[in-house]
Known about the structure:
The protein is mainly alpha-helical. The chain has helices at residues 9-23, 26-34, 49-55, 59-67, 82-88, 92-100, 115-121, 125-133, 151-157, 161-169, 187-193, 197-205, 223-229, 233-241, 259-266, 269-277, 292-298, 302-310; strands at residues 142-144, 147-149. Helix 3 (49-55) packs parallel to helix 5. This is Ankyrin repeat protein. ANK repeats lie at residues 12-44, 45-77, 78-110, 111-143, 147-179, 183-215, 219-251, 255-287, 296-320. Keywords: ANK repeat, Repeat.
Amino acid sequence: MQLTYGNSTAAANVDDLFVASRNGQLDVVKFLIEKGANIEARDKDGWTSLSVASNNGHLEVVKFLIENNANIEASNKDGYTSLHLASRDGHLDIVKFLIEHGADINASNKDGYTSLYHASTNGHLDVVKFLIEKNANIEAWGDLGPYEWTSLHCASINGHLEVIKFLIEHGANIHARGDLDLFGHTSLYIASAYGHLEVVKFLIQHGADINASGDSDKDGYTSLAIASHNGHLEVVKFLIEHGADIDARGDSAKDGYTSLSMASQRGHLEVVKFLIEHGADTNASGENQCQPSKNACEEDHLDVVKFLVEKGANINARNRRKHLPLTWVT
């Protein structure tokens, strides 16, 4: 086989090795290694042939590369090892092989993500089970932008109920909060925010605090508040039916809104109706003394304003800047 790029056969071999590894072409990989291709060569992003093969699920190529002394812990520029990549994409056979050959099960990338974190985020239950059985750290924290979350948080945000069940059954902390210096969200809050009703049900049934709120001045909202804000009516119904505080206020110095205020601000009329039917205070005001009617007016949700007024909202109440609700319409 004669594959060349420019004037460098060595460079060609490396390029071809990457292509063959990515495509699972074991015979080509063997040929190139025998001809001197550098098994540890990296591309501009730090990927090796092993990481490419692991990412694409080519077990036989992975086996050959490891047997020929490829570095099992090599990571790309973002800190992803071959085990991270195989776990992220659900390649259980490769995950097993890498672990059996010494891959660090709790290694983290630059953002603190472990292999368990990746598998949980993407709903790969079989990989999650195997990693837990091999003593992966179930409470490892990853740094997801402004959030620091566990594997349970990440399974919750994506609604992976079976993964959540397994993690809880194997000791994951159902009350764990994100980084308290930022938001302090629980898994229940996250599931409520994204409308994952079955996850919400499971977490509540297994002891999650229905009225837990974020612990910072940036948030402080409950699961009910965020479900109301995002218009997830079925989640709102379930939370109310199971004892959520309908008039709980956010702890934020910025607003202190109730669930009704948040639903009104976003124009979620059906949520507004349900909350009021179940006793929400139509005139509750936040720290800035803004009431639900003001929040609805500010965003031009006139159907919500009309309903609030019909249910007793005070349209003459002023906020601390002395603005009337209808001031915001114009």
